[in-house]
Specification:
Length: 467
């Protein structure tokens, strides 16, 4: 293979008006790209879990209040809409998924490198700036990775696929607090800060290497034409409306804002909650308990995937989100092991909510899929808005009382879970994808050449799209 052919095969530019076979990939064909992209889910799970641990660490080392320490979450999640609705979404729509993956990884690596001198200088503002750059990188990755996993493979199993991939996100959130308990809280402040810098250097090296792997890999690009074909074949046909009339999408984005804000608020102040309600618990123990809670979160995703194999995902989503409301409420008034166990159970049922909102919200968007995914991912900005409110409530009263804030946002997010189960316009689009046969069997091959060919129905659909 010559250099010119090598570069052409790895071009980062994909035509959105050209239909490929990507909309009809079978499970076997989609396995490699899904495994590669799933690595990204672990990365931002680790980064997010590290952030929750650093939240408490900076309260100790820099003597800042709980509400001010939430500046880390504000910087991290505040970057998401800038990426999801701005630069990352532009790259996704004009170049493609692979280009967006590489862009996000490079931003992540740059942010990790910027964090090192800020840590050494003990500059909280500087570290927040580094976290903002990392947030832009991770926001770029989420803008591309969530819709890619959702649409790469048989549409019937999109919720199952994204929940399996997101389960590795949960594993990352377990590893980070465990690391924090041994690397940050087990040493004096000077040694702990030195250890933090080595962690971020390792992250930078890893993500730059991963960016090279994505450049060298040839993974299927899923175009707007592919998604329009899927919408037509499943009879969801939501993409025949202008983008600004996709009210189901915007409701999903609102639910994502509320749910993510509540999830981040609980995780951000979990260590504070344990310290306030558990006599004798130190930061290292609280960090290990957070790792256990995040382990329950990861286990919940695997359990949710198993249930979704037999029950419609929209019903599982409604049940899990309702149970989040039921179990977080007692943590406001209960103390000791009882209150903490309520948060453990809440994290278990939080597990499938984020990825399922993404999958359900993108149902039937067709040619609007890439643009719409940016809005749903931008909803992650709730993680920048709700933790500061929780921190203010914690400073004013106590951390247990502050759990009333995520409770209110869980209730608001439930409006979407109810709509997707009981409002026909929502429910029918969701169910149309749950019964489609696309991708379950490979297209037939030409007997003489062995090449995959389109059926007459496929050709007619393609001709309609190209008009």
């Amino acid at each position: 293979m010559g250099v010119k052919e090598f570069m052409q095969r790895r071009s980062l530019k994909a035509r959105d008006d050209k239909r490929t076979r990507a909309a009809e990939l079978t499970l076997r064909e989609s396995l490699y790209p899904i495994c590669l992209v799933t690595i990204l889910f672990f990365l931002w799970g680790f980064s997010y879990g590290l952030l929750d641990t650093l939240n408490k660490h900076f309260q100790n080392t820099l003597d800042i209040t709980k509400s001010r320490s939430s500046g880390l979450q504000a910087a991290y999640f505040g970057a998401y809409p800038l990426a999801a609705l701005g630069h990352a979404n532009w790259i996704l729509r004009h170049f493609g998924y692979r280009a967006t993956f590489i862009w996000g990884l490079c931003l992540y690596g740059v942010g990790a490198l910027v964090a090192i001198p800020c840590i050494l200088a003990k500059s909280f503002a500087g570290f927040c700036m580094a976290i903002f750059i990392i947030g832009n990188g991770l926001g770029s990755l989420e803008t591309a990775a969530n819709p890619y996993i959702t649409v790469c493979g048989p549409p019937r199993y999109s919720e199952i696929r994204i929940n399996i991939s997101q389960a590795f996100n949960g594993i990352g959130t377990v590893v980070a607090p465990v690391l924090g308990s041994y690397v940050f809280f087990a040493f004096d402040d000077a040694k702990a800060l030195q250890n933090v810098q080595w962690v971020y250097l390792a992250i930078a090296v890893f993500v730059f290497v991963l960016a090279i792997v994505f450049y060298l890999s040839v993974i299927p690009e899923i175009t707007d034409a592919d998604m329009a074909f899927q919408a037509t074949e499943t009879h969801a046909n939501a993409d025949d409306k202008p983008f600004w009339k996709q009210y189901r999408l915007f409701h999903a984005a609102f639910a994502q804002f509320c749910y993510t804000g509540a999830q981040i608020a609980i995780a951000s102040y979990f260590i504070n909650y344990v310290r306030d309600t558990q006599p004798g618990a130190d930061d290292a123990l609280a960090s290990q308990l957070l790792a256990g809670a995040q382990g329950g979160f990861a286990a919940g995703r695997f359990f949710g995937v198993l249930v979704m194999r037999y029950v419609r995902p929209r019903k599982v989503f409604l049940a899990f989100l309702t149970l989040c409301v039921v179990f977080v409420a007692p943590s406001i008034t209960q103390r000791g092991w009882t209150g903490m166990s309520m948060l453990y159970v809440t994290l278990f049922f939080e597990s499938i909510c984020f990825p399922t909102i993404v999958a359900l919200g993108m149902r039937g968007l067709g040619r609007h899929t890439k643009r719409g995914s940016g809005w749903i991912v931008a909803g992650v900005m709730g993680g920048a808005a709700v933790p500061p409110l929780t921190g203010v409530a914690a400073d004013a009263r106590n951390t247990a009382f502050a759990m009333v804030v995520p409770l209110c946002f869980f209730v608001a997010a439930s409006s979407y879970a109810l709509a997707v189960n009981f409002v026909p316009a929502y429910r029918d689009a969701s169910d149309a994808f749950s019964t489609t046969e696309i991708g379950l069997t490979p297209r037939h091959a030409d007997e003489e050449t062995g090449d995959n060919v389109m059926s007459s129905e496929d050709k007619a659909a393609l001709a309609e799209i190209e008009k």
